[in-house]
Amino acid sequence: MGTRGSRQDMLRTAVREAVAEVEITDVHTHLYPPAFGDLLLWGIDELVNYHYLVAEVFRYTDLSYEEFWQMSKREQADLIWRHLFEQNSPIGEACRGILTTLHVLGMDVAARDLASFRPYFEQTTVDEYVDHVFEVERIKQVVMTNDPFDDRERECWLGDYKPDPRFRAALRIDPLLNGWPTAWQRLEEWGYGVGEELNAATVKEVRRFLTEWVERMDALYLAVSLPPTFAFPEDSPRGTLIRECVLPVCEELDRPFAMMVGVKKLVNPELRDAGDSVGKSDVGVVEHLCAEYPKNKFLVTMLARENQHELCVAARKFRNLLVFGCWWFLNNPSLVDEITRMRLELLGLSVVPQHSDARVLDQLIYKWTHSRQTIARVLCEKYADLMATGWVPERMEIRRDVENLFGGTFWKFLEKKL
Ligand SMILES: [Zn+2]
Q: What pLDDT is stored for residue 4 in this prediction?
């Protein structure tokens, strides 16, 4: 009994160490290198103004939406802090995350004084701060979300940006796929010979557009977020563009197509960025794509908890499908725990259990601190189950597995030959 107890302790220590020390590849974020200027959000007021907290503050305040949006960022942060940290205990995950972040940065959160945190951020430069966050959380690389339809971002790419190796690109094509009636006009402005009708000439030019941007950004994958109603095949501009442009370009350039499925856009438009919701989607669509396009790779995450089991089963059937992350409303400890457990049971280590989706640099700290805790706990249990059979996981094996979960599996998927 004593021996088994101490073996379990050794196991826990080995797993915790491996998870604490692993260098992370964060496969989906909304972060940018410092060279992108204001596009990179960071600091305490951005943290407190995270759209998760904007949604939450309206559950307590009578303030009108309009009044809120007219306030300065600092006033908004003060209001959020008052309601979500002073007048109520900050037990929600997004609130707790701010406390974790400040705590890891060495600040005293006990005083409950928002103003006391500001000087730290005012006294650091963005370059120093990026270095610090990456170091403190052991982040090796983050994958950005890069939208050539965003004029501010476009300018950066077309200017003299010298790539920062910590920030890798992903070509985000929501405006193209979900807004073709206006997107084609932008393409035309930029010199592509396109019209609204998706004829052979337009298809060829859209392919050229995608290819040029993948190459310009050295994008690791192409990505889109999709509504719960997403269907494929589909007689729509989106369906045609995916079939005729996106999938052929992905195959030719050997880049996965990442689909983030299940977001209901602007259920409450008054909330702006905080106004999106979730709906159940059809995993059959993912299966269809994987089956019909075996030479294409698909990175898929789904927003509805109800879709997670089916999605795992789909990944068992198709090696060109890699499931990743607990996205947005799923990025809560209880759900990450449940989903990670299920994925490891159904898919072993061939998943990417988490991405941060960080919009504010500082969020890398709490999102990864919290995810590390949950994933380590699940792994400890899974290895303990193996130990009960007499299979003793070696320290090096644990490290190998952890490295795969926190990035290795993603990189291997990119290199996989189909
Ligand atoms: Zn995202």
A: 64
- Identify any residues that bridge with 335 across adjacent strands, giving them in sequence order: none
CB 325 within 8 A of CB 299: no
Query: Which residues fall inside 5 Å of ion ligand 1, going by CB?
Result: 357
pLDDT at 6: 87
Contacts of 6 (CB under 8 A, 6+ apart): none
Cis ω for the linkage preceding 181 (within 30 of 0): no
pLDDT digits (tens, 9 = 90+) for 343-384: 999 999 999 999 999 999 999 999 999 999 999 999 999 999
Residue 3 has pLDDT above 80, yes or no: no
- Rounded to 5 degrees, what angle do the CA atoms 93, 94, 100 make? 80
pLDDT for 1: 45
Q: What count of other Cβ atoms lies within 10 Å of the Cβ of residue 336?
A: 23
Distance 328 CA to ligand 1 centre (A): 8
Between CA 121 and CA 36 the distance in angstroms is 19
Closest residue by Cα to residue 280 from 311, 243, 255, 252: 311
223 CA to middle of ligand 1, Å?
10
Say how far apart CA 266 and CA 149 lie, in whole Å: 20
How much distance in Å is there from the Cα of 226 to the middle of ligand 1?
12
Q: Vertex 103, ends 50 and 363: CA angle to 5°?
A: 30
- The rounded distance, in Å, linking the Cα atoms of 84 and 56 is 8
Cis amide bond preceding 248, omega within 30: no
Cα–Cα distance, 17 to 1 (Å, whole number): 24
- pLDDT tens, 302-329? 999 999 999 999 999 999 999 999 999 9
